[in-house]
Amino acid sequence: MKYDVIDTEPRQITIELDNDSCYEAPSRVTATVRSREKLKPGTGAELRVTESVTNVFTVDGLCPDAEYEITIMDEEGDSCTGSFRTSKESALLDVRRFGAAGDGSRRDTAAIQAAIQACPAEGTVYLGRGTYLCGPLFLKSGVSIWLDEGAVIMGTADRADYPVLPGVIMSTDEKDEINIGSWEGNPLDCYASLITGLGVENVSIYGRGRLDGNAQNGDWWVNPKVRRGAWRPRTVFLNGCREVRLVGLEVCNTPCWTIHPYYCENVALIGLKIRNPDDSPNTDGIDPESCVGLDVIGTDISVGDDCIAIKSGKYYMAREHYRATSGVRVRNCRLNHGHGSVTIGSECAGGVRDVLVSRCIFDSTDRGLRVKTRRGRGSRSVLEDIVFDNVRMTNVRMPFTVNMFYFCDPDGHSEYVQTREPQPVDDMTPEIKNVTARNVTCEGVDVSLLAVYGLPEKKVGEVVLENIEADYLPPEKRVPGVPMMMDGMEPMSGRGIYVRNVEKLTLVNVNIRGSVDAEPDIG
Question: What is the 3-state secondary structure (H, E, C) of 194-253?
Fold first, then answer.
């Protein structure tokens, strides 16, 4: 047995087991952690025992800047031993000392914000058990927030409590454009999020507590595409941040996208549980946009839209604030009940490259891998090196879809976007270079296994399926569906491989059982 300590905080660590299993551990494991030194009374436990049935789990109740020995053993008696040291902590500030009530009725925004502002570098703001009703809280560089078990930061239901983040302001010398707010790929005014980080560095939010957007008790989900005051907030919005970690928390009931890292570097989202109602509008789980370096590890997502949607803005942002999203790692996650498990686009004008999704379970989503773009995203919208490896899909209706005619935006149904006739290749033409899926099992396929529609003037470069096992639902349980959101696409049922406008399609050891197709439909 092997393991890695993938996150170290002052009072907890997170372990990832090193095996080939997807999300779930091969058998239950027990982690025993013992302090190697005498701890001061009340600062942390000298012995902690944690059991887990998943590959990623947290051991908490530890003391800052202390050395521990850890032994991990599975049910068969296989074990391994190692050591680690928790992170340093300069101070621990309890928000109740600053006047927070935590009773779920009095607003605690000012008290918690005061604690954050007062906290010294490498310090921790502590929230104990209770419900802290808040408007947006703004993060501070070098300060961690610890939500202990039973602690809930709950957003107020009154949009008047939410400041507006301007989409664009000009620098004083009028030479630079400063982008603060964002909405669906454009620099537009939006309400501040329950947790908002603007240009902060070295921040952790961790613990067994919950961030609750409380959207169901406000009007955020009413007429969601209508701008009222400003565009809807997220639950967590990080703009221009570096070295930020969210670990172990539950995040739920978001007004819009749940966690939105935007123009960030080195963000880690580890061991989270993200929950939004199935019918809640645009409540994606995680939306990295124009980010470099993102780890999503050991996270369980069930939402009302895409579970993870990787983006890089619309054309204006690619032209004026260009940054491709790159270096995304999604590992040991469980993605449930969304429109897409992992989506690339559709706001991807800056391009997306170097994405690896591995050791994950996709369960009951509409689509597994979902790539969506369209004319108008621009020549910088290059999607490349997208790899899925060792993924288990169950009841995913359409495991792989690649669509270059996605009909989003006001002009989405226009002749320019939707025509199947070749158009000039120009500054508005996007490109998909290569997509690979290998070592994937798909049980309960419904509509199609692979559906790809490239542009006639800019075909998809290469699609590779290798070591794929696909079993279909029986005919009486299938429900016809449209694999790609584009005009003129007829519903399908039980189809195998449907491909249009691809330069190279590579199929290696692809076994399809129960489809209606004898041969791939390639055009």
Answer: CEEEECCEEEEEEECCEEECCHHHCCCCCCCCCCECEECCCCEEEECCEEEEEECCEEEC
A 10 A CB-CB count for 139 gives: 23
Q: What was the pLDDT predicted at 45?
A: 62
Residues in contact with 6: Cβ distance below 8 Å, sequence separation at least 6, in sequence order: 14, 15, 16, 56, 270, 297
419-461: per-residue pLDDT in tens?
A: 999 999 999 999 999 999 999 999 999 999 999 999 999 999 9
| Low-confidence stretches of the chain (pLDDT beneath 70) | 39-45
Amino acid at 47: L
Among candidate residues 305, 306, 363, 446, the one labeled active-site is: 305
Task: Reduce the DSSP state of residue 49 to 3 states and report it.
Answer: strand
d(CA 23, CA 144): 27
* Residue 518: per-residue pLDDT: 76
Rounded to 5 degrees, φ, ψ at 201 are -135, 150
Contact 464, 434 (CB under 8 A): yes
- Helix ranges (H only) for 277-377 are 315-320
Least Cα distance to 394 among 358, 368, 357, 370 occurs for 368
Res 517: pLDDT: 87
User: Using an 8 Å Cβ cutoff, are 327 and 354 in contact?
Assistant: yes
pLDDT of 36? 82
Closest CA to 34 of 78, 72, 5: 72
Active-site position among 339, 411, 487, 517: 339
Whether 297 contacts 7, CB under 8 Å: no
Instruction: Say if CB 108 and CB 102 are below 8 A apart.
Output: yes
Q: Residue 309's pLDDT is what?
A: 98
Q: How far apart are the first and last CA of the chain?
A: 48
* DSSP H stretches of helix in 222-352: 315-320
Helix (H, G, I), strand (E, B) or coil at 97: helix
Pairing status of strand 300-302 against strand 265-270: unpaired
If 0-12 CB within 10 Å is exposed, 13-18 middle and 19+ buried, where does residue 279 land? exposed
Rounded CA gap, 332 and 22, in Å?
A: 6
Residue that the structure tokens 């939004």 belong to: 276
What's the pLDDT at 336? Answer: 94
The answer to whether residue 305 is catalytic is yes
